[in-house]
Amino acid sequence: MKTLLIKEFIYKAPPEKLWQALTQVDQMKEWYFPQLQKFEPVVGYPFQFEDDHQAYQKEWIVTNVIEGKTLAHSWAYKGYSGRSEVLFDLVEVENGTKLSVTQTGLESFPDHPHFKRERFEWGWEMLLGHNLRQLLESSTKS
C-alpha cells in the first residue's frame, strides 16, 4: 500500500522569500544539503552534488515547477533500488506562508534502516522545521 508522508510548516515570511530559499543554491546549501553544487528550478534539471564519498549518493531530478508555488523532484540513491518523489507547495497565509511537503514512494526503497519512513519524517522536521525556519527568521531580522 502506498502511503504519503505529509508535513506542513508555517513561516513568518512572504512566499517570495520562501521560494528563493527553495530555489537558490546558496540558500539551499544552508538548509537542505551543503553538498549541493548546482541546481535550477527547471523540469528535467539534475541536481549536482559534490561527491562527499558517503554511502548514499543522491540522484535527484526536478520533476515539476510552478514558479513561486510548487517545486518537485525525484529522490533516489546511486546503487540502490527505489525512487521517491518530493513535492513542495507554498500557500500564502495571514502573516506568512504555509509550506507543505509531500513525499511519495518511500515503500520502493530497500528494507534497511537508512530508508525507514521515520528517518524521513525526522529529516523533514530538521530540514524544514529547524534549518529552513532558522534561515528565514534570521534573514527577516536583517
From TrEMBL:
Family: Belongs to the AHA1 family.
Name this protein carries in UniProt: SRPBCC domain-containing protein
Organism annotation: Larkinella knui
Pfam families: AHSA1 (PF08327)
Activator of Hsp90 ATPase homologue 1/2-like C-terminal domain segment(s): 12-137
CDD domains: SRPBCC_CalC_Aha1-like
UniProt-listed InterPro entries: ASHA1/2-like_C, START-like_dom_sf
